[in-house]
Amino acid sequence: MPALASHRKTRARTGIRANTPAVGFTTAALASVTLLSTQSATAAPAEPKPSIEEVQKKVDDLYRQAGTATQQYNKAKEATDTQRKSVDRVLDDVAKSADKVNEARRALGTYAAAQYRAGAVGPTAALMFADSPESYFEQTQLMDRLTERQQGAVEDFQKEQRSAAKQRAKATKSLETLTESQASLKEGKQKVQNKLAAARSLLSELTAEEKARLAALEREKEQEARRKAEAKAKEEAAERKRQEEARQEEAPATGGDTGTGTGTGTGTGSGTTDGTYAAKAEKVLAFARAQIGKPYVWGATGPSSYDCSGLTAAAWKEAGVQLPRTTWDQVNVGKRVATADLLPGDLVFFYDDISHVGIYKGDGKMIHAPKPGANVREESIYYMPIYGSVRPA
Q1: In 10 A of CB 174, how many CB atoms?
Q2: CA distances, 4 to each of 7, 23, 207, 211 (Å)
Q3: How many whole angstroms separate alpha carbon 277 and alpha carbon 32?
Q4: Of 70, 128, 297, 310, which cross-links 305 as Cys (Cβ 3.0–4.6 Å)?
Q5: How far is it, in rounded angstroms, from Cα 323 to Cα 359?
Q6: Measuring CA to CA, which residue among 169, 155, 158, 159 is closest to residue 94?
């Protein structure tokens, strides 16, 4: 019997050890639930989604900021182009100076070679070996003249060397300035692209319904601007009629008709209502109308696309008037006129930072390149806050 006891199976042990994994899993799960509950209770609430009106305002602000950045880019590009031309001129001067240095060096080499071939002969030896005293003195005078020429060649060489060094230093400085301007230009370009990308990102997050609502808001804004433009047109028409009646009343006293004049503005404060300006304005507007439908592209000056100041500059160039590249410089050209005195062809500027411009066509409307994603079009001048207006010629 004792021998059989050694072959008995060991009885399985039960208790806490066997159940430990299950207990551990349950405890971890409970802890996770508790932690998640705690985080949910303390997490900040999500920011509310902006309204369509807020999105519209934000997008408009981004486009306007992009417009300002575009003018900064245009100004930097204009400066960079000027600097590049200056660098080209300086490098050309450096090349010319190098040629002069080489010519002076060749002259010195010629004299040095002649001396080497003749050898160094002292005055006593020259007199002894001369055929006659007269021959000696002739040789002496020739050598004196040769020495003077050699001295002149040395001075010329040194002068050209100094000039070349100055030109190289100038070129180095010009290249450094150009490099800085190009870096600034690249930064400005990136700034515009970032603003436009932010605007596109906001618009891309809208649902189809929200986009429809945004489009409706844009139409409402356009209709309000149109109403203002129509009111402006009626006001101008009434003023023209009043002026015409006044001229007719004065005609008998003056012995004839004084003429009706042209244009849609009153011209009372402009000082330029003659046919010369009207003829130029007609060319400007004919060009501007021909560009309607072409896309706005920032930094573009035509002929396939334009930004706002690119269009105004190209249009007035058709009339023989060269305008600066940016709105900030165009606003200082010609003569300032009041909104009530606008004539076709006048430039109307917008926003406090003067970041947009259009060409007035009469009846409260203008032709302009509006913003990215839009084409050159006719629109009310009251669509944006007016800064001021100028008559370029």
Answers
A1: 18
A2: 6, 39, 84, 90
A3: 81
A4: 297
A5: 13
A6: 169
C-alpha–C-alpha distance, residues 56 and 54, integer Å = 5
| Residue type present at position 244 | E
- φ, ψ dihedrals at 377, nearest 5°: -155, 170
Take residue 175 and report the two structure tokens written for it: 């290249």
Side-chain-facing half-sphere of 265: CA atoms under 13 Å: 27
Separation of CA 372 from chain center: 15
Q: What share of the chain is helix, strand, coil (3-state, %, to 5)?
A: 65, 10, 25
Which two structure tokens, joined as six digits, stand for 296? 């706005």
Contact 63, 298 (CB under 8 A): no
Tokens of residue 46, six digits: 């999500």
pLDDT higher at 60 or 28? 60
The residue type of 77 is K
pLDDT digit string (tens) for 159-196? 777 777 777 787 777 777 777 777 776 777 787 778 77
pTM score, whole prediction = 0.55
Query: In whole angstroms, how large is the CA radius of gyration of the chain?
Result: 42
Q: Any idea which residues carry the catalytic annotation?
A: 308, 356, 368
DSSP per-residue codes, 198-248: HHHHHHHTS-HHHHHHHHHHHHHHHHHHHHHHHHHHHHHHHHHHHHHHHHH
